[in-house]
């Protein structure tokens, strides 16, 4: 296991932004034969209730930028003091350049601020903290702005009852800083890449690319897109959709994650009562409770309220949980939390953090800015730019 410790890195602020649009599972009764009792059972077992989803033209970076703007404003952060911007994402705005350059420009950060994207899934927030902590502890940065954002709902068929009720969208920003005072944080990171296909979008990059200018490639692309494959669960997917082997993921979660957390607690010489809570990636109620039980935490200290209210917003789900459940504790006192994210890769990343009177935004609804660029505006902009008509 990859165990590590930092002694002079502190988290000073966490903000979370979610879309305003809310979908309630009871409003989708048509997918459950209009059987309210069936919906009640699903809510009791899996934790389905409400989720937040973006308008189709809103990207993850839009949510992340607004979360960062809240952090900068409310914490009165001098933008020139931010030494690095780390953007954790699965859905970049464009293939090149990295979306972090776009975010850097929108936020008005300094020319001396280093930026980069990291392609990660559900454990991304903890991976980002780990990377940021290394930069700070090494002395190369004093302040790092970590942004993680995802919109898994986009492109999802609402009739797909396997995935659609699970996923919500969100963006989060975290400020990580050097501390002269000793502040300990502990990490445990594991990679089980033999099962990397368990969560995957099979056709999404250069492994299987299409030249749509060629007739044969265009026909193949169109055929794959318009002829979905029926899965053993009865829903229909194309090779462009996300794929998940639920059994493999569940087995990984139950076998790897509890042991990862236990090993981290042993490494840090801490016990269950040292923490205000175990903040798990909000996969669903069943998984959260199963992992919490296996680690030995009392259920009231393993919340799944973020999943119930916002859905599984992947890499944002842990900071969403912190800001939804523990906002008062972390702003009013020094509190320790233990967190674990798990998913794509397959990977598990756990962390023990001391959150001492930090800034917590709670949960903020996303508002489109006045200069929001819709898809149509974006395409018009580039048509004009390519034709030389943009000034």
Can I get a quick summary?
The protein is an alpha/beta fold and 391 residues long. 33% of the residues lie in helices and 25% in strands.
Outline the structure in words.
With 391 residues, the chain is an alpha/beta fold. Helices cover 33% and strands 25% of the residues. The protein has helices at 36-46, 60-74, 99-107, 124-137, 215-226, 246-268, 285-295, 305-310, 317-325, 327-332, 375-387, and strands at residues 2-6, 9-18, 22-24, 50-52, 84-89, 114-119, 143-150, 170-178, 185-191, 199-200, 229-230, 236-237, 243-244, 277-280, 334-343, 347-356, 359-365. The strands form five sheets. The protein has a six-stranded mixed β-sheet, with helices on both faces. Helix 2 (60-74) packs parallel to helix 3 (99-107) and helix 6 packs parallel to helix 7 (285-295). The mean pLDDT is 93.
**Full CATH superfamily name of the largest domain:** Thiolase/Chalcone synthase
Query: What is the fold named in CATH at topology level of the largest domain?
Result: Peroxisomal Thiolase, Chain A, domain 1
- In terms of structural class, how would the helical and strand content be classed? alpha/beta
Strand order of the largest sheet: 6-5-7-8-2-17
Q: Please identify, by name, the CATH architecture of the largest domain.
A: 3-Layer(aba) Sandwich
Proportion of β residues?
15-25%
- Overall structural domain count: 2
General form: globular
- Counted by DSSP, the helix tally is 11
Indicate the low-confidence ranges by residue numbers. Answer: none
Helix content: 25-40%
Distance between the termini: 55 Å
Please count the beta strands (DSSP E, at least 2 residues each).
17
Radius of gyration, taken over Cα atoms and rounded to an integer in Å: 21 Å
Reading off the top of the CATH hierarchy, the class of the largest domain is best stated as Alpha Beta
Largest sheet: 6 strands, mixed
Mean pLDDT metric: 93
**Series of secondary-structure elements, N-terminal to C-terminal:** EEEHEHEHEHEEEEHEEEHEHHHHEEEH
